[in-house]
Write a structure and sequence with these properties.
Elements lengths: L2 H15 L2 H21 L5 H24 L3 H15 L8 H15 L7 H11 L7 H14 L1
Length: about 150
Amino acid sequence: MRLRDQINEDLTAAMKAKAVERLGVLRLMKTAVKNKEIEKIKELEDAEVLQVLVSMIKQRKDSIEQFTKGGRPELAAKEAAEITVIEEYLPAAVGEEEIAATVAAAIAETGAASVKDMGKVMKACMAKFAGRPVDGAKVSELVKSGLANG
């Protein structure tokens, strides 16, 4: 089953179960996907839907940070609950060991020798992680240390 269809099906189930919080998040997800489809003027593939969901999570993490700084823990908790629902639709996140192995392989493949080649290595790494949630900051950190030591 396609991811967008799964979201729609779960939305219907949440309506029937009267799960208000979950229903709200699923509606936001459906709307975000629909808006992206309108923007691209075509139905999204699963990989594109995943990108939309990952960006929704990133927005919520930014909001949590702002709410925490602003002394609004109740709003930060609401955003964290939304992230939990959205993450149900994402494949398992890439582990730190896999990130390290991919970074080492990308450095070797690209022949990168210094930090000046960081963009090349990052591009190669992120292409290998396409469609899977990965901590870009962690990848960047490992690429920097790998190039500095190399």
